[in-house]
Design brief:
Peroxisomal Thiolase, Chain A, domain 1; 9 helices; about 325 residues; alpha+beta; globular; about 25% strand; single chain; two-stranded antiparallel sheet; 9-stranded mixed β-sheet
Length: about 325
């Protein structure tokens, strides 16, 4: 029996709204004083926070989806909508179904994935690959959609270290393609905290105390599953949470901070599930992905789920 075909990212499309506010302009809505806003910029790296003004969540996500699909809709058998905030729409509205109908994906089975919070995007990509390997049609594809609106004024800042922006990503996923190949995936749920951004001070301390060790651990696990070491990784492509937290994680991994792509924190903010895909696309557009290079995409979901995926370009 031959090896199972690898999950491949056949197309990745992103949409970042042109409108944005600086962290200083956003400070009153974030509940921050002016000195606290300066810390958010200088210590954690945040600058601009894009906002899809006048667009609802369906328009925001559909803009990225149209770029990924182009003329190829017939082969899409699964639509997976990954989002961080568990409840994006009223109870009578199934967001994944609305997106499927809006995009004209009449053959697709649509569902949402959310319980791993900001790690849900990487989890959705892993789930999409498993669904395709179980599908009898070797030409079937999945569309993984990521993106959501910020809740205002309730949840625009996480633990005073991450300010939220708005953006969307669409990944057209296949098997055995010629594009970016998934080599491994690892995740771990350490403790289920249901409060989300309203977590108690005690839960937040517990999450913070174990953050670096757990993130470094899941990165090592994904790299090990890919049959390589950290020295074989061209770059870590992270979630945009905090430059300071990544500095500490790099120390735990024994790698330098330049090995982590942090350049979009100041441009995008933390766009929840979308971060690692936004950063992957930014590197691709800049021509900085090396053919045959191995990259680790990471995400951490408040709650807390840690995820890492090794992708070969």
């Amino acid at each position: 029996m031959g090896a199972l075909p690898s999950t491949t990212l056949d197309n990745v499309s992103v949409y970042v709204p042109p409108a944005a506010h600086t962290v200083e302009q956003s400070a009153p809505g974030l509940g921050l004083t002016r000195p606290q806003a300066r810390v958010l910029r200088r210590a954690h790296g945040f600058g601009r926070l894009p906002e899809a003004t006048g667009a609802d969540v369906f328009e925001l996500v559909a803009r990225a989806a149209e770029g990924a699909l182009r003329a190829d809709r017939h082969s899409v058998r699964y639509l997976v909508f990954a989002h961080t905030v568990p409840t994006l729409t009223p109870a009578h509205t199934q967001a994944a179904d609305v997106l499927r109908d809006r995009l004209g994906l009449i053959r697709a089975e649509a569902f949402a994935l959310t319980q791993q919070h900001c790690a849900s995007g990487l989890s959705a990509l892993d789930v999409a690959g498993e669904l395709l390997r179980a599908d009898p049609d070797p030409g079937a594809r999945a569309l993984v959609l990521v993106g959501e609106k910020r809740l205002r004024p309730l949840a625009r800042l996480v633990a005073r270290t991450s300010a939220l922006g708005e953006a969307s990503v669409a990944c057209l996923v296949g098997l055995g393609g010629r594009r970016d190949r998934v080599l491994s995936y690892a995740d771990r749920t350490v403790r289920l905290v249901t409060e989300g951004v309203w977590t108690s001070a005690e839960s937040e301390r517990e999450f913070s105390d174990g953050y670096v060790a757990n993130l470094a651990g899941v990165v090592r696990e994904a790299v090990d599953r890919a049959g390589m070491g950290l020295a074989d990784i061209a770059m870590v492509i992270p979630h945009n949470v905090s430059r300071l937290l990544w500095s500490r994680t790099c120390a735990a991994l024994g790698i330098g901070l330049p090995a982590v792509y942090l350049e979009t924190i100041s441009e995008y903010g933390h766009c929840l599930c979308a971060d690692p895909f936004l950063n992957f696309a930014a590197l691709r557009e800049a021509g900085r992905l090396v053919r045959g290079g191995r990259y680790v995409l990471t995400a951490v979901g408040l709650g807390s789920t840690y995820a890492a995926m090794v992708v070969e370009h």
